[in-house]
Amino acid sequence: GCGSAIVGTPEQVYEKIQRYIKMGIRAFIFSGYPLIDESKIFAKKVLPQLHTINFAEAQGRKPKGIPVTPLTTGERK
Q1: E strand or H helix at 13
Q2: Quick check: helix, strand or coil at residue 49?
Q3: pTM tops 0.85
Q4: How many whole angstroms separate alpha carbon 65 and alpha carbon 70?
Q5: Rounded distance, CA 11 to CA 72, Å?
Q6: Which residues contact residue 16 at a Cβ distance below 8 angstroms, ignoring those fewer than 6 apart?
Q7: Euclidean distance between the first and final Cα of the chain, in Å?
Q8: Which one, of 37, 40, 32, 42, lies nearest residue 8 by Cα?
């Protein structure tokens, strides 16, 4: 897989994420070893600006109802 470090002020981080979105990237896994203060800043200043979607809805794959499986109402063996 591919990885990239995104560092900077909250504004710079947001702009860098937007550049990836403009390239066509639609899913991100944000990870690493941030300090709790860095995580709080990201959660407060960057995440609220990001438009999120539900992939199942965006791709027209959302079921019309809850599927019957052993984890829902289906028979458990």
Answers
A1: helix 10-22
A2: helix
A3: no
A4: 15
A5: 43
A6: 6, 8
A7: 38
A8: 42
Of residues 1, 20, 18, the one with CA closest to residue 10: 18
Residue 32 has what pLDDT? Answer: 74
Long-range contact set of residues 29-34: C-beta below 8 Å, sequence gap at least 24: 32/5
Q: pLDDT above 70 covers what percent of the chain? A: 99
Q: Which helix (H) or strand (E) holds 21?
A: helix 10-22
Residue 27: CA count within 13 A, CB half-sphere: 5
Torsion sign over Cα 30, 18, 40, 7: positive
How many CA atoms are closer than 13 Å to the CA of 68, on its beta-carbon side?
4
